Structure formats: structure tokens, C-alpha cells
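sorry for the late reply, my laptop died twice this morning and i had to redo everyting from scratch. anyway the thing you sent over, i finally got around to it. pasting the sequence first so we're on the same page, its 463 residues, then the predicted structure underneath. double check i copied it right bc i was rushing
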Amino acid sequence: MPHEVKDKFKDECGVFGVFLKEPEQENDAARAAFYGLYALQHRGQESAGIAVSDGHKISLHKGMGLVTEVIKPETIKNLKGNIAIAHVRYSTTGESGIVNAQPMVFHYLQGMLGLAHNGNLTNTADLRKQLATYGSVFQTTTDTELVANLLARYSQDTLEDGLNKCLIDLKGAFALIIITEDKMIGIRDQMGIRPLCLGDYEGNYVLASETAALDTIGAKFIRDIKPGEIVIIDQEGLRSSQVVKSPRCAHCVFEYIYFARPDSTLDGINVYQARRELGKQLARESDIDVDLVIPVPDSGTAAALGYAEEAGLPFQDGLMKNRYVGRTFIQPTQKMRELSVRLKLNAVNKIVAGKRLVMVDDSIVRGTTSKQIVQMLREAGAKEVHMAVSSPPTSYPCYYGIDTSRREELIASKMEVEEIRQFIGADSLYYLSREGMFQALGGNSEKYCDACFSGLYPVGTES
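ok and here's the structure:
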């Protein structure tokens, strides 16, 4: 599979689960899972899948591609049962390919398990070696299979015992949704790095990576799953246990900057409002004499609106996004690489010509796309092109399930701000300060993981 142009970070996965006590139709759970998964498509475009339990067995359908490419109407008709989990994937740990697509379904001593996993374990190598020593064999290269092996090993008495022991062993960032023949289980890592929430769906329970997925199927938000918590849902209802004590919260700050949908609320903070506040703070910290604020759509739009509001400047869409372009791949020539950016974005000449612009984006990873957009705006007649970024310089890789480039590919790890400005060709370049970022998000820096900016990792980074 060709490599994608990595000028934006890629989130690892999205997970969704639904437990229906008494479905009206045999495929209601699969249908709800499809719509919930569709709402999470932004979290992974590589593969998709749904697993459904009918009380006796777990059926699975998964494939490579987008949700609508993999899950067809006839697929949903054949996925009969009252419990369903669903997954969209962008590979971080494990190679791209159908064998690593999720959910994964396994047989073990107590019956069957279906797993959907969002995140990345940081003790994968140690766990794989430990399990192999006891005779485990592996069909995939994902850490999700390690979780299944641990559960099978620890669940010889009861599944709950296995879950408790498993959560103690797992290190890193993860949100897991598991189904058996008659249960649905949600687990969140002990620092809450990866998001997971609980909803009420017509008296039934739903688990999802983001609240936007609850909204899509008409479910009501109940609460976020707590760091280190296990929730078990069956015909008797929901029960919860706090298996490991959370030393602190470390919610991924990049969820608010870029990954999550703007209409989602994660751990009490609305993503759209957070991005708007980040833009306002960026305007306070930068002093740019311009005529117009434009966003890099779509992820820079809310921050650009906040910037314009705080700076008292007009806001217009100076760049148009082609919403029918999917994944863009590296092309063999420079000319074709530049064309791939123009397929996604185009400058609106009538808006930008003769204007002094500040272009607001959420981040700069390698800098190549920013450079091409600046050039595009100049070719469209912009008098000046300034760039403002609603996050600090991204200088460090992520080990918790975000597909960052290697550190040497991160432009901010090897260049100072002035050097980056020269590389992208902007008249000026401003990044939001780390202090300003936390101020915009409520002021409590201890609540977040910002290791990609600071290099301060809340849990181990070994993999």
C-alpha cells in the first residue's frame, strides 16, 4: 500500500459498541453500529468492521477501505444479534492489511471474544515475549491480539478476573470495547489518554470514542468512562469497577486541536469551543498587521474564527476544499506531489488577491503542505501571507496511538521558528505558546498529555 502524505497526524482508530436488550429486528444492533462507525470515519480510513453476537456466537465482517465501502446493506442484514462492536482503523502498531483489521474475534476456554481497540500499548515487546514463553502464537502484528491472549490466559475462572488482571498488565494508551456472547465491556487506560464515553440509546447502552457518534444514532450522553475503569453491560444492566487507581489524567491534547470532530465533547470540553479559544489565544499572542483571516480547511476553521473575532479582523474562506478527494498518496515526481495538494485545496483569487492574509492552521508536521499552500496563495495574488498555528511546535513523536512521523521528519525538531518560516515561504510565522494552549483549555496543564510538544511522556514509551 502506498504511503500517505504525512503533513497531518493520523489518529489511530475509532471504536463503537451497542448492547440492545430486546431489539425489534435481528440486525438492529449491526445497523446502529454502522451509523455510529460512520460518524467516526475521521478517526481511521484504512479498514472497517463490525462484530455481532446473537447470544450463541459472534459473527464478523471487516475489510479494507472506508465504512461504506466495507459495510454494505446486505452485510448488515446478515449480522444478526443484539450486541455489536465496530471499528475504523489507521495502522500505528501493526502493518496495514486485512489480517490486522478490527474487530478481532477469538475462541477461548469460556467461549468467544470480540475486541475493538483504540490506542497503543507501550509494553508490547515485553508482553509478546512473555506470552510466547507460555506457548502463545500470533497471527497478526497488532497489540490487540496481545490483549486477547492475556484475557484468554487470565480468564480461566471468570472473565471479570481476567479483565482485572489484564488491565493491571497493560501499559500505554487504550480504549477497548469487548463483547462476549452475552456481554459488552468498556475499558479505558489508567490516565484516560484515549477517549471513551457511555450513552443511553432508548434504554440501552452505547460506548463510543466520541459523543458525535452518540448524537448520530440519537443516543444521549451519560458520562465519560473514567481512567482505569471497567464497565460491564449485560441483560441485568451496567456495573462498573475501578480496577487501577489513576495517578493523574492525561487526556490527549491533540484530540482538541485536530483529531476529534468539532461537534464532540471529550471529558467535559466541547471540541469546537476549545478550538475557537485556541484561536483567540493565538491572536492575543501574535501581532500581525493584516487585512483578512483565512483558515486551512477544515481543521483550522474554528481556530481561525476565534482568531478573527479576537483580533477584530474579517474572516473569509480564502481556500476551498474538495470534499470528494479521499486519501492522497506520495507521487513519484515533485510536480505530481504538488498536484496532490491542489486536488484537495484551491485558492479563491477574488478573495485573496491584493490582500495581506493571516492563514490559520492547527499544526505543521513536515511543512511541505504549508509551503505549497503559501505558494498557492501568492500565485493567486495575495500581497502578504502570514501563518499562525493554533498549537505549539510539534517536536516529539507520540507513542500512544497517534501516527506521528519519526522525530527526524518533524520539521520543528530540527528547525527554529524562523527557519521554518523561511522554509514555508511565509512573511511571518507564529505558534501558540504551550502556556497559552493550556490557558485556552481551562488552565490545568496536569489534565493533559502534550508530549508531542513538550517531550514529557506521562507513561513509558517502550514498545
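Confidence is low (pLDDT under 50) at residues 1-5, 327-332.
thats about all i looked at so far, will dig more tmrw
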